[in-house]
Amino acid sequence: MKKVLGVLLISLLSACASQNKQPSAEVEDKSVGGPSRTTESSPTTTGLANLNSLTDPNHILYKRSVFFDFDSYVVKDEYRPLVQAHAQYLRDNGNARVLLQGNTDERGSREYNLALGQRRADSVKNVMTLSGAKDSQIESVSLGEEKPRGVGHDESSWAENRRTDIRYQGE
After folding, report:
1. What pLDDT score was predicted for residue 52?
2. What pLDDT does 16 receive?
3. Which of 109, 113, 145, 148 has the fewest C-beta atoms lying within 10 Å of its C-beta?
């Protein structure tokens, strides 16, 4: 039964990966000066575009937090495109490395929160690897409740603290 499920999972992942492939096409490079035409395979343009995408507040890769429901480590559907975009970035940039930091709110014991933070970081890592990122590019750690973003003791602060942060090496 496990073998059948394994083969089924691999087939499903292969089908998903083949649907995401796009043919090499011309893209417009707006990163320097005016518009110019270039191909996707241009290393200089790709490097500039990738650098700009991480620092451009209007680009999806600028967003670095995945938020969770109370006592949950399931990546919500609304965050899947974000996680998949970061996985695509890692696929396109083999030297890039990312640290996933799982966080929790202050409720629960220290041990419970460290374990939950790890499950949250691992959950994001799982979505990234299933989306094509290499396992060796991703490290997941738990910070538990130690690095709160929201400092209040109410639901809005707790919601800000139930997250996994995506940190690229060198940032």
Report:
1. 74
2. 46
3. 109
Q: Using one digit for the tens of pLDDT, what is the confidence trace for 36-67?
A: 333 333 333 444 455 578 999 999 999 999 99
Q: Is the pLDDT of residue 134 over 90?
A: yes
Domains, the chain, with CATH or none: 25-62 (no CATH), 63-171 (3.30.1330.60)
